[in-house]
Design goal:
Helix 5 runs parallel beside helix 6. This protein is an alpha/beta fold and 224 residues long. The longest helix has 19 residues. Helix content is 34%, strand content 15%. It has six helices and eight strands; from the N terminus they run H-H-E-E-H-E-E-H-E-H-E-H-E-E. A six-stranded parallel β-sheet has the order 4-3-2-5-6-7, with helices on both faces. It has a two-stranded parallel ribbon with strand order 1-8. The protein has two domains: 32 residues; 170 residues, Isochorismatase-like (Rossmann fold).
C-alpha cells in the first residue's frame, strides 16, 4: 500500500469517528460539559469479607472533632456508631489499630467515641492525606514488621485521607478492605466518586474489596 493511500485511509477513519460524535463533545472540555457528567446509575457491588486478625490492621484516618460535626460534615456524624462498632470488634480480635491526624490536629482532637487506647499509635498529619509519605514514622515498615498484609481503611474525607491512603496502600502491595459506610465525605456525590475510583482505577481496583462495616467477619481466611 502506498504511503499516500495509507494517509488517505487514516484521514477517512478520523473523519468517520468525528462524524459519529456530537459536535458539542468535540468542542467542549469536561468543565464546559459539567451538567451532562452523570454518575453511573449502578453502584459498584459490596460484599461480605473475612479477614485474618493476625495479618490485618484497622486504620482510622483523621476523625477529629473539628471536621466531624453536624455543621461541617453531617455524614461523618451519622457514621460514628458504625465506626465505633468496627473499632470495638477489631480490638476484641486483637488487631493492630492505628489512627492518623489531619493537619495540625493532635490526639486530643480525635472523636471521643473513637479515642485511641494507650497501645494504639496515633500518627501525625503533617504528611497530608497520604500517610505513607513525609510522616515522622515509616508506616510501611511498621506494617511490614508486624506482618500486616491487609488494611481495613475508614477515613474522612472520602476524597482526602481515604482516597489517598487506599491508593497508596494498594500500590504498595497491601490488600485493602473499604467499608463504604465508614468513609464520610462532604456529600453523597463526593463519596460516590471515591467508591467509583476504588472500583475502577487501574492497579487500585485489583486490591480493593468494597464492603460495609457489618459485613466484615474475622477468621483465619484471607480477604475474599
Amino acid at each position: 500500500m502506498s504511503r499516500f493511500r495509507t494517509q488517505l485511509l487514516a484521514l477517512a477513519a478520523a473523519a468517520l469517528v468525528a462524524a459519529t460524535l456530537p459536535s458539542a463533545t468535540l468542542a467542549q472540555a469536561v468543565t464546559d460539559d459539567w451538567a451532562s457528567a452523570k454518575i453511573p446509575l449502578d453502584p459498584p457491588p459490596v460484599k461480605a469479607v473475612t479477614v485474618d486478625p493476625k495479618t490485618t490492621a484497622l486504620a482510622l484516618l483523621d476523625f477529629n472533632k473539628q471536621g466531624c460535626t453536624l455543621e461541617r460534615r453531617p455524614r461523618c456524624v451519622a457514621d460514628i456508631p458504625k465506626l465505633a462498632k468496627l473499632l470495638a470488634e477489631a480490638r476484641a480480635h486483637g488487631m493492630f489499630v492505628f489512627q492518623t491526624l489531619a493537619g495540625t490536629s493532635t490526639a486530643a482532637d480525635l472523636l471521643p467515641e473513637l479515642a485511641p487506647r494507650a497501645n494504639e499509635p496515633v500518627y501525625g498529619g503533617a504528611a497530608g492525606p497520604d500517610k505513607f509519605i513525609g510522616a515522622p514514622i515509616d508506616l510501611q515498615k511498621v506494617l511490614v514488621d508486624k506482618g500486616i498484609k491487609t488494611l481495613i481503611v475508614a477515613g474522612t474525607g472520602a476524597t482526602g485521607a481515604e482516597l489517598y491512603m487506599v491508593s497508596a496502600a494498594a500500590t504498595r502491595g497491601f490488600a485493602i478492605v473499604v467499608p463504604v459506610d465508614g468513609m464520610p465525605g462532604d456529600s453523597a456525590t463526593i463519596e460516590a466518586f471515591a467508591v467509583w475510583e476504588f472500583a475502577h482505577a487501574p492497579r487500585i481496583s485489583d486490591r480493593v474489596i468494597l464492603t460495609k462495616a457489618d459485613l466484615i467477619s474475622y477468621g483465619s481466611e484471607p480477604p475474599r
